[in-house]
């Protein structure tokens, strides 16, 4: 356990001279921010501003930027005074010009991008590239040094900040939360993250709520409620708010410096108390409320309309600076109000007395290694899969709970990486419900509130994070991964849609960051979707939605992977594989209920590595023999039904040659030119034939299979059955029957697709229909499945077993 | 404006005798709740409990239920005492047995479902059907009388409650918020809804935070923070909390009765002050914090483990009541502890002195007409489309902003329905940004905080609702629609994914409710997705995601519709149509930027009604003539590019017969057996041919078009171009080029798919490549699109114009 260095304790208050320097630094950042939004050329305004110097398309967000720059300049002072390690999470990410400006001022920008040097020419390029084709985007994107948070879609700043702080005991994550963003659901819930942060082992988050009063075209809620309510709200959230309010720069500098000193003193005190054992209760963490005008220091009015301190400052306050000389004059005098000659030397470099204000080396917020977490990433130590293999003497003869086996594996992951403290399991109160509770043998759930004697697996030192908010689970994990650690997110399948848009943003981040050489790879975001659509016994229709994988499949092939392991050993293999990958998002779908086991660990390895394979023992076609019909399946429940359907066909139409193909890696179905996991055409055709009917039992919405296979030779013969959005609180078998993906419907479909089987075929159809009706009657009378369905085992031998 | 009736003011505190009756009523509801979870038969326990009486599968959630029943019983008293109109929103919806029990006790259940009468046989059926195949689901679902909220996916109770309260001045929406649910993002943000509720014209929401302490397997955050923080939090949220805490029923009854009297008195006082003009500031609304044990009155321990007051009470506290005699004895004594013979008469009816406690008629919460809002729904008065038509003298010769035209139409909608007060426009701070700001000619944004003299279109009486939370926009609108009103949600396309899961739940609600005869149809939920993927000039990659429609397309065909109107008149027609529909979710995707206009209003009507059609003027194939290639398009930007590609082909390869097909109604592409809007095969083939190449320029992810058309004759020849997840902050034309859906790529693809065009073809390809390169160079040098691209107009005549 790290002990705080005394350097983190209070420095003396800054002198007026020092504050005057900070003001100049701030002006430099503001100048550079405006320049990025407006200028193509003439960066230092050493010539009169002409139309040709102004960009033809003015894009960007000024309103939030001066506040972000103000915070940055003051954090620089605190970092230097205390030798603190600080990461800056910029909630209003569209204040991107501010982040770029500051990292250029401190030198990190030019180190990373040597073609943008620290001089007038560099400044010209810096301005030109912003929001310019082939240049950089307008947000605090992966391209922005020091950023782990894009802020394009608002709401996730604070939860990312907490993710970064966990298990980084020396880190302070300063997180600017915009008052617009504060209205979102994710952000509103994020304040309670402090109930899960342990000052003894974790870093600190310093939220800075930036009340600049307005969104795009409206006031913000938090800026207009009374100060009494505002204070109460943050006390209620577990914080001690410090208010910094005004618009006079000199007064504001003094207030802000004092507020940051108070906050950092308080953080240092909390650390000392907790790490020396004096305190153990959750502390009341400091936070800062910074109330400053939107578009502060910008034009007060344009065309007679209020701009500074109003929503008109949100994007580009002077709209027609290229076409209108009057507007251009406003822009010029605005930029000159920062007095660039007082800030930059002849060559366009920041003057030395200002450059000296920035921290050095990795203390610069643009260069803090936690903000490029791949650099700090250590490989996760993974247990031997063999130690966790489930014994499968013969396919379908034994049952097991796949996620329970995974829980034991994850328990070992916690043990093996206990010292590294770089693995977390997150989930919305479902670790036990999802049957991963073996992990509690190695660790607890983290909990900073009171703990009762009868509480179970709850402690301040736990590494399992449970809160009833998928947003927090996702956001914590993203922040944790982006700062170089590992994790796993287990979730009810239907409710992962709650974070569809967060998934989007993370996928977009990865797509861009993996193209940036200087960004070191980060661990993949791994989802286990369980308690899935087919087994929602307690909950019913509202809990049934297998569509997240459809959403995932829209993203760049480089980034996403989707797995449907059919049993425990294959789940173990897939999960183990995913934990070793980086820069990806892996989605694993697997049930938690007792289910037949099919593959030994050796078979599971071969089968999962292949992505899809023939289960010879299940079909009647001999190995290498062309079948009459292919029964394909993806997903544990559909696999069970497909194997059972194969059994029914074997019983009723023994002459028909059937083949069972199981698909684990859904992306194997896609054409190889669409996805790197796509099976080569000959391999695909070898599995699915080029002209035989394929009855495909799929876990989710059938359309996804059509969409993935539409380029395949035999696509016209693939008949997919899956979830049809039919469901309620009912028995497991009734669920598959409602959606017509049960063994009887599958066998009936196979017969319908085969050449006419004559009298035997007719008899088989009649028999299947009778059995289906029998089951329906039994279920509605008894409220449970017929024992021979729910306890069904594969009744045949498996001499030719193979998992390839 | 309605004035409060004095009957809503304080009644005298209930006597001990009255409270004793309430306690018995509560016990009856608890008894019926347990019975639903456990019993197949022997409902009144008049025989000794045997295994055969117990359900084989025990499903349901006991933990929250006694608290819900407690609230219900006390609300009944208040409703009667004050003749109040109250709707009960049950956040912990899996307390479904409680809602069913109470509506059965008050008689509404048997009125709606006469096969479940109010007697012993009815009770037996009531028990049996719960979570039973063919019966009712376990949540407060559409099947549950009085419910407008399922509560399967947690987080939306409070926002639904507010939606129900808007414009219902006499209504009180009592909303039980579970402490698990309170951890979600959507709920955390919902508390601020009171900033948008005007007591002068709106009803009241009475939140009842139910702290029963535990989720599935964890304590809850709000139940374990200090009372000081808890109180501060709700004061911060703008409430005056009233605490009801304990576990002794008698004391709790007294506290709860007093708390509700205080709360209803406070609501009555607020109404009177605001409606008489005495007060105008946002009031501090009452709320109740109810702290009671989870599984209250259930078994204290089972198998030596704590159950009551702990998370083990969450679902089924006595797990093996059928198989284990000991467990069965626990169940029997638990149920008998409610003393059923003291509650129900010989015939199994609730005893008359208890039945008298329930309100009568529509005052019963299960029968409140607002909870079956279709019954109160009045048709929206819609303006004449002709009054808003954009003049289109010739296709492609004029430009217009589609959403601006829609804004003027919606302005009229507000005017025409001003008196009915039954229409709201919601959006996350984007009404003006999305160019719908003409609506501010008719109404303002609603705002209950202070209003500054320089604020714009902001007032307490506004009917536009803007908050930076898609969750709140969606939830308010759902609540508003389900209580019988109309609305429209305008949103940035990318960020509508934030409410993917809320969309799911609403679609599921509609799928079920439209099958229930007694549920009257409610107005459709209408989305306008704008500021779409192709025009995110200020924002870039993070704001680019057209995948919501993919998500929507997974839902039941009866429920969903997706429209891509290509211009202003078609947008007007589609929006007008959507506003007239019911029980659906309509998604309209349309840009806000100036764009070419193609169709007169008459043409737009015919074209939109057909769903898709040939634009003869754009192609070179004569009407009725088989083309060599079809250029298809859906979406405004792809339509522009496809028309331009047709122009390029006309110029470069005048011998090639092209046909342009525009698709407005995306579901027209699906096979008619998959969607009611699916074009008949002959009509589809007449548009897309049976064997000619089709180059399809699509707004979103290309796979959706493949998936929708995979059953079509000519599917193998459909080559789709759309968003490939490539984007950044760049020019509009560069965006289409990055994704290869620009006019040049489309024309090149058409040529590649045509039979060899010889030298002319080669020359055309070279020319197209040259122009493409020229544009790329120009863009990267100038930072804007070549004027002849950005100002492009259709350079040909249109003698044969048609919009069919």
TrEMBL record, chains A, B:
Instruction: Decide whether keyword Lyase is in the record.
Output: yes
The UniProt entry, under Pfam families, shows: XFP (PF03894), XFP_C (PF09363), XFP_N (PF09364)
Sorted alphabetically, which SUPFAM superfamilies does this protein's record hold?
Thiamin diphosphate-binding fold (THDP-binding)
Required cofactor names = thiamine diphosphate
Name the domain of life this protein comes from. Bacteria
Q: Show where the Xylulose 5-phosphate/Fructose 6-phosphate phosphoketolase N-terminal domain sits.
A: 15-375
Which keywords belong to this entry?
Lyase, Thiamine pyrophosphate
EC class name: lyase
Q: Which residues form the Xylulose 5-phosphate/Fructose 6-phosphate phosphoketolase C-terminal domain?
A: 592-794
Q: According to the UniProt entry, what is the EC number of this protein? A: 4.1.2.-
> Residues of the signal sequence?
none
- Keyword check for Lyase, yes or no: yes
Q: Which NCBIfam families match?
A: PRK05261.1-1, PRK05261.1-2, PRK05261.1-4, PRK05261.1-6
The UniProt entry's sequence similarity note says: Belongs to the XFP family.
What is the name listed in the Swiss-Prot or TrEMBL entry for this protein? Probable phosphoketolase
Could you tell me which species this protein originates from? Jiella sonneratiae
Q: What is the lineage of its organism?
A: Bacteria, Pseudomonadati, Pseudomonadota, Alphaproteobacteria, Hyphomicrobiales
């Amino acid at each position: 356990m790290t002990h705080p260095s005394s350097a983190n304790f209070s420095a003396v208050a800054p002198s007026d001279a020092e504050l005057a320097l900070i003001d100049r630094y701030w002006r430099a950042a503001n100048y550079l921010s405006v320049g990025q939004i407006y200028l193509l050329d003439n960066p230092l305004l050493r010539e009169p501003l002409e139309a040709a110097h102004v960009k033809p398309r003015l894009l960007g967000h000024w309103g939030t930027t001066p506040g972000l720059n103000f915070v940055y300049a003051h954090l620089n002072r605190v970092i230097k005074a205390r030798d603190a390690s600080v990461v800056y999470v910029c909630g209003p990410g569209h204040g991107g010009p501010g982040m770029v400006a500051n990292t250029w001022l401190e030198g990190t920008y030019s180190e990373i991008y040597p073609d943008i040097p620290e001089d007038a020419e560099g400044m010209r390029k810096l301005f030109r590239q912003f929001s310019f084709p082939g240049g950089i985007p307008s947000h605090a994107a992966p391209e922005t040094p020091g950023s782990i948070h894009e802020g394009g879609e608002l709401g996730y700043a604070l939860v990312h900040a907490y993710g970064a702080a966990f298990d980084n005991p020396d880190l302070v994550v300063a997180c600017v939360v915009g008052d617009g963003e504060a209205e979102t659901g994710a952000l509103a819930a994020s304040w309670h993250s402090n109930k899960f942060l342990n000052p003894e082992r974790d870093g600190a988050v310093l939220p800075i709520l930036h009340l600049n009063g307005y969104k795009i075209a409206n006031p913000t809620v938090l800026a207009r409620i009374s100060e009494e309510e505002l204070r109460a709200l943050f006390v209620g959230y577990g914080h001690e708010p410090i208010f910094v309010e005004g618009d006079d720069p000199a007064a504001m500098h003094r207030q802000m410096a004092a507020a940051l000193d108070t906050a950092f003193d308080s953080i240092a005190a909390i650390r000392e108390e907790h790490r020396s054992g004096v305190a153990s209760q959750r502390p009341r963490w400091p936070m800062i409320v910074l109330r400053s005008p939107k578009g502060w220091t910008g034009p007060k009015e344009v065309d007679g309309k209020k701009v500074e301190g109003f929503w008109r400052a949100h994007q580009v306050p002077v709209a027609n600076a290229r076409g209108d000389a009057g507007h251009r004059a406003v822009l010029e005098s605005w930029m000159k109000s920062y007095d660039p000659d007082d800030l930059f030397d002849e060559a366009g470099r920041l003057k030395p007395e200002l450059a000296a204000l920035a921290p050095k080396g990795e203390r610069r917020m643009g260069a803090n290694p936690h903000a490029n977490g791949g650099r700090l990433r250590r490989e996760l130590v993974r247990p031997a899969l063999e130690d966790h293999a489930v014994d499968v003497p013969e396919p379908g003869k034994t049952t097991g709970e796949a996620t329970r086996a995974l829980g034991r594996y994850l328990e070992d992951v916690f043990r093996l990486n206990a010292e590294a403290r770089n693995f977390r399991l997150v989930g919305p109160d479902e670790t036990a419900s999802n049957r991963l509770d073996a992990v509690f043998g190695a660790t607890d759930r983290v909990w900073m509130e009171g703990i009762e004697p009868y509480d179970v697996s709850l402690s301040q030192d736990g590494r399992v994070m449970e809160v009833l908010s998928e947003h927090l689970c996702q956001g914590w994990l993203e922040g944790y991964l982006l700062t170089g650690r590992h994790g796993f997110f287990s979730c009810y399948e239907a409710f992962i849609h709650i974070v569809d848009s967060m998934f989007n943003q993370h996928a977009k981040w990865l797509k861009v960051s993996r193209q940036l050489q200087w960004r070191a790879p980060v661990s993949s975001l791994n989802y286990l979707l369980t308690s899935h659509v087919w087994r929602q016994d307690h909950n019913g229709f509202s809990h049934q939605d297998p569509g997240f994988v459809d959403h995932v499949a829209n993203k760049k092939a480089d980034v996403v992977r989707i797995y449907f392991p059919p049993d425990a050993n294959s789940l173990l293999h897939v999960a183990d594989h995913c934990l070793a990958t980086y820069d990806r998002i892996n989605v694993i779908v697997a049930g938690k209920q007792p289910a037949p086991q099919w593959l030994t660990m050796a078979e599971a390895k071969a089968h999962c590595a292949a992505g899809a394979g023939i289960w010879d023992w299940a079909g009647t076609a001999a190995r290498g023999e062309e079948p009459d019909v292919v029964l394909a399946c993806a997903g544990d429940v559909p696999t069970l039904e497909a194997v059972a359907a194969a059994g029914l066909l074997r019983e009723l139409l023994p002459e028909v040659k059937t083949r069972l193909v199981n698909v684990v890696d859904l992306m194997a179905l896609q054409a190889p030119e669409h996805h790197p996991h796509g099976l080569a055409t000959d391999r695909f055709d070898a599995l699915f034939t080029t002209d035989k009917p394929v009855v495909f039992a799929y876990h989710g919405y059938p359309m996804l299979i059509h969409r993935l296979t539409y380029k395949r030779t035999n696509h016209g013969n693939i008949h997919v059955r899956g979830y049809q959005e039919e469901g309620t609180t009912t028995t497991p078998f009734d669920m598959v029957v409602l959606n017509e993906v049960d063994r009887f419907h599958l066998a009936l479909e196979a017969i319908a697709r085969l050449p006419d089987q004559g009298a035997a075929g007719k008899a088989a159809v009649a028999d299947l229909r009778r059995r289906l009706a029998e089951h329906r009657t039994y279920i509605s009378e008894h409220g449970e499945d017929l024992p021979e369905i729910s306890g069904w085992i594969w009744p045949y031998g498996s001499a030719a077993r193979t998992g390839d």
